[in-house]
Design brief:
- By secondary structure, this protein is of the alpha+beta class.
- It has helices at about 10-25, 50-65, 85-95, 100-110, 120-130, 140-145, 150-165, 190-215, and strands spanning about 1-5, 35-40, 170-175, 180-185.
- The protein is globular.
Length: about 220
């Protein structure tokens, strides 16, 4: 069974979902494969001012009962035809073996807790390189983040996100090898996902048990 997490590094709702993501990975370690992919936000999804960004942060922070408010200091207007760098840098870090959460979490924390300008490539690269240490050299990371290969991967994962007929991040797509699929879009609470995962794991186990007793279906 696999769970794919679709995210945008600078999304406040993705920030709030991270404790739940970590809990899922710990709870189902060894039984479920976990992966994350970038789902780019559309131009109209971004706040148009720091004041508007703060308004969104007050709303999401209140809903999750956070004891702190996120920092909008990272905010800069998104120019037409451009995209904030943080997600590209996080994706590029995969080329250096950083397929876990550590690099994108470092970027998210730097932006949304410290207000660093993670939309700027040089800032995002510096943060990621520091988090990755010697295994993540800044010059090579920047080249990868600016490469056509990374852009193509992000475009492909974004298209996959929209192919599920969803629009809200975070999104979680649960799939298994018996063809079941469950899609959650915009949720940051643990219980709905654990209920679905438990049900799907039970079904997979049942199919395995049946096959061990009866084998494959008759050809005719």
């Amino acid at each position: 069974m696999k769970v794919t997490y679709f995210l945008e590094v600078t999304s406040s709702w993705c920030f709030w979902s991270e404790p739940m993501w970590a809990e899922l990975k710990a709870r189902y370690a060894g039984r479920v494969a976990f992966d994350w992919e970038i789902a780019k936000m559309l131009p109209g999804d971004w706040p148009v001012s720091r004041a508007q960004c703060d308004w969104f942060y007050r709303r999401s922070g209140t809903i999750v009962r956070s004891p702190f408010m996120l920092n909008s200091g990272w905010f800069e207007p998104v120019k037409p035809g451009t995209y904030p760098a943080a997600s590209y840098v996080a994706e590029a870090a995969k080329d250096f073996g950083f397929t876990g959460d550590e690099i994108r979490l470092a970027l998210s924390h730097a932006g949304e807790r410290e207000g660093q300008k993670i939309g700027r490539l040089e800032v995002a690269v510096a943060i990621a390189a520091q988090a990755g240490g010697k295994k993540l050299p800044a010059k090579k990371l920047r080249a990868a983040a600016e490469s056509k290969a990374v852009a193509a991967r992000i475009d492909a994962s974004t298209q996959e996100f929209f192919a599920h007929q969803i629009s809200q991040r975070p999104a979680f797509v649960l799939s298994d090898d018996i063809g079941d699929k469950a899609v959650f879009s915009g949720l940051v609470h643990l219980e709905p996902l654990t209920a679905a995962i438990d049900a799907m794991l039970a079904d997979v186990a049942a199919y395995t048990s049946f096959k061990s007793h009866h084998g494959n279906p008759p050809a005719r």
